[in-house]
Amino acid sequence: MTTAPLIDQACPFCGLACDDLVLQGGPDLAVRAGGGACPRATRLYAQVGATLQDADARAWIAGAPVPVETAVQEAARLLGRAQAPLFGGLSTDVHGMRSLVALADRCGAVLDHMNADGKLRNLRTVQDAGWITTTLSEVRNRADVVVCFGSDVRTRFPRFFERCVWVDEPMFAPQAEEREVIFIGAPPGVELPRSPAGRMPQVIDIPAGRLPEAAAMLRGLIGGSLPAGTATDLPLEALRAVAARLHAARYGVVVWVAADMDWPHAELCVQSLTAAIGVLNQTTRAAGLPLGGSDGDFSADAVMLWQTGYPYRSSLATGTARYEPVMNATAALLARDEIDFMLWTGSFDPERRPPDPGRAALVALTCVGTPLLPDAAVQIQIATPGVDAAGYFFRADKVVALPLRPMIDRQLPSVAQLASRWLTGLGVAAC
Amino acid sequence: MLTRLKGGKIYDPTRGLAGTVGDIYMRDGWIVAAPAAGTRIDQDIDVTGRVVMAGAIDMHTHIGGGKVNIARNMLPEDHRGDPVYHTELCRAGCGHVAPSTLTTGYRYAAMGYTACFEPAMLPTNARQAHLEMGDTPIVDKGAYAMLGSDDFLLRMMRDGADQQRINDYVAWTICSTQALGLKVVNPGGISEFKFNGRKLDLDQENSHYHVTPRQIVHTLARSLHELKVPHPLHVHASNLGVPGNFQTTLDTMVGAEGYPIHLTHIQFHSYGTEGDRKFSSQAALIAEAINRQKNVSADVGQIMFGQTVTASGDSMSQHRNAAYGSPRKSVVMDIECDAGCGVVPFKYKDKNFVNALQWAIGLEIFLLVDDPWRIFLTTDHPNGAPFTSYPHLIRLLMDKSFRRDALAQIHPDAATMSTLGSIDREYTLNDIAIMTRSAPAKILGLTDCGHLAPGARADVVVYREDANPEVMFTAPEYVFKNGTVVARDGEIVAVMWGDVHAVKPQFDRAIEKPLADYFERHLTQRLGNFRISDDEVRGLTNGGELRVHACQRDGSPT
Asked: Which residues in chain A have their CB less than 8 angstroms from residue B335's CB?
């Protein structure tokens, strides 16, 4: 691979998939100074793209280093005898997911992504009522009011404001300093982004646990009637002003991060926001921006949808696809002791590790930087798309799929290579 | 290997064969001429009494891209009713209205279709469209890139860019997205919706760019003509579904000023405002205009009764239509200063006056347009109905008494307002072969499919003739793709991967300089990551080829 810096590379380490990075290849992979990346990307490129020496182990069986080929065959043996396999994690790119779904079809596996809990909060809203949404370039050029609900956004999507809000020359919207940014219920203690000139955003504090009520109030205020029994201790007048501001906006955008809405039935909160957006669109324009896509979750989801017809948390155990998002959750399957095998894929973040597999045999495909997993029957280090494998990555708005290019070569197998081998070459067909 | 299909009744309108008894020879995936006497025939299949046609071509079917995936995401309830089990050969899938890509490929092939064209590929979403088409087995694929509400074109037009410069941009877009043609959807209207416009008539200026839909259609139709892209501009006209929109449609035809244009799902654009309910058929006027203007072609977008889902780039219309959704849910998106989309499930009901009349209007257009070379058999899958309803539609066209029985079932007021009952025309097998083979190949510039002459791909379908055309067209006896039997009697017997069809109009590469600057200053991806190279698209075909068709057009505008 090249040692010259390459420009315009897409970053796979969060859903924004910023594609303006300058990367310096081999032997280590790093973001070149001034190459556009955020601290998260800089850290993960260094960690996931770290050099491996020839002597370094790349695969383990029960914690002991083995040649990769030995581990691949042991994984095939375990998969071959599995009665109830689960393919979890699913943090991979389009190519990896295509191969995993093909393998799951043959093996009768359940497919579930590590970010499915968050995604389901949005999905339930889409399947129940739908929504009106927008994409990154529309926000960048069109939004005059940006309301961030229940999240600081920047923790999970570090360059969102830099790339979509505080920009030079928006085509149809006010300049950066005139754009209004309003945080409703941002987590306490997190520094919120200031405009380039140092202007603070407007902040409406909502006590912990009260965000669903605030969303319902906002919806009521935008629709012109507050729900009965509306709490009086929430900042009604501030929310009323937000409602008025969104009504007056030419293109208001409401941003939320479903991953941050970690409470039961958070879909009802999402639905309050989307319903409010629906009302706004009767007279002006407004749209939601449900940010996600990190850990390849939109890439995996897109492939699931086109190859099986269903989102993840579907099972192929009966020979056809069945979508049961509650039953097929990894945690639920493990709690009910219903799986005997788990193939876990984690390509992008060493901190995201598989749950305790219980009785199930765990085959873990992990990115470089992941420590040895004590519960894994087999662990294989895999190439990461955008580091040492080619691939495609669906961005936070689910529209743009960016190419990921291999920058270095550490002789690691890709998920697609492994899954294809298990599918075609190692007797898995019989399972 | 040399294969002979012996003694079939050949319908090959490209060569003027309409039931002529003869033999078809295939070797190594291609149709070949009859070999010299004494040549060994490796595989000899007696098809005496059978009807033999080229593989069918669906020139307008939403099979890939973001909006189809949105439809899949929204409608698990529909998919649950239509599970597809895996077999030794085929992958599992599901889906009645928006099937998985694998199921889509198998079902098309089993029905005798060997090529399908995605008509609304958003440039910014082109990679997804190709990824999905790449995972659609057996059939060949291709797509029309969508322009006409994108900021770059509209600002060029606003600024008075000359036609040559616009041609460069159009050609660059087609090449960069690996497209076969170009579509415009609600010209300028998707953009207008983002500026809070809810309607954009043909001569109404977009409020930001001050250009009109008429100017956009004319500019793009001219551009394709000058670039010699075979397929005329594919036009989803303004005012989709609006009562009274027939006048817009007629004016759009005139607005092309003789440049070839193809009006898509014209059924949805043929509505009048007569009668108590202010909704009526203007199919006769529309058909008459098509008959008269030889530069105009159309596909119908027939609706069928039952559950389906509408998936369109026309966010403005779909936001309006969301109120009629069943089940009542919808997704509407503004997309990347480039386009938009809207997905709304629909359940068309025969006892609903409007739906019943929509059904009749589609059939009226089919039967009143004289020239089967300029009217195409589509349901605008899945917008009018899933593509699996084609055999039923073919029966409606071929069987007058069946059609009249169906007419007797619909809302009586709609039946009364329609002239359908008085139309005696019945399509012949040759007409069907024109509409579904020869004509689509011709209008798309595909010289090596849609016919059975030597030099064509060996995409061949053998039907058992049946008094009921629905039976005949549902499960052909043999379907050959590239010379291999892929389906028998409606069952998939071999899986292969079709090709991608594209054109490469020439352009001045200098256009990339302002485009790269534009991407960098205003968009959120870089130009180099937007472009899809030949090698890249080849890598998505599972082994199929990239088939590039010549850019050539005859003559000047009519």
From this structure: 134-135, 138, 399
Question: Which residues of chain B register pLDDT less than 50?
Answer: none
Judged by CB atoms closer than 8 Å, whether chains meet at A310 and B79 is answered as yes
CATH number for the domain including B209? 3.20.20.140
Q: Between chains, do A172 and B523 touch, taking CB under 8 Å as contact?
A: no
Whether B316 contacts B188, CB under 8 Å: no
Structural domain count of chain B: 1
Measured CA to CA, the distance from residue B25 to residue B33 in angstroms comes to 6
Q: Which residue of B has its CA nearest to A405?
A: B529
Residues in contact with B303: Cβ distance below 8 Å, sequence separation at least 6, in sequence order: B267, B348, B355, B358, B359, B362, B379, B384, B385
On whether any CB of chain B is under 8 Å from the CB of A127, the answer is yes
Structural domain includes residue B175: yes
Q: What is the pLDDT of residue A429?
A: 44
Describe the strand order of the beta sheet including A30-31 as a list of residue ranges.
A5-9, A21-24, A30-31
Given CB atoms, is A102 within the 8 Å cutoff of chain B?
Answer: yes
Q: How far apart are CA B193 and CA B180, in angstroms?
A: 27
Best interface-test mutation with A: which of B74, B529, B533 has the largest number of A CBs within 10 A?
Answer: B529
Kindly state whether residue B176 falls inside one of the protein's structural domains: yes
* Structural domains of chain A, with CATH: 5-48 (no CATH), 59-115+295-430 (3.40.50.740), 119-291 (3.40.228.10)
- pLDDT exceeds cutoff 90 at A277: yes
- Chain A, 20 to 49: residues with Cβ < 8 Å from chain B are 20
For the stretch A359-376, pLDDT in tens is 999 999 999 999 999 999
The per-residue pLDDT for range B112-130, each reduced to its tens digit, is: 999 999 999 999 999 999 9
Res. A1: pLDDT tops 60? no
Q: Is residue B90 within 8 angstroms of chain A, CB to CB?
A: no
Q: Write out the residue range of the structural domain in which residue B425 sits.
A: 53-492
Q: H or E stretch including A203?
A: strand A202-204
Distance of CA A66 to the CA centre of its chain: 32
- Contact: A285, B196; criterion CB under 8 Å: yes
Instruction: Share the mean pLDDT of chain A.
Output: 94
Q: Do B333 and A399 touch (CB under 8 A)?
A: yes
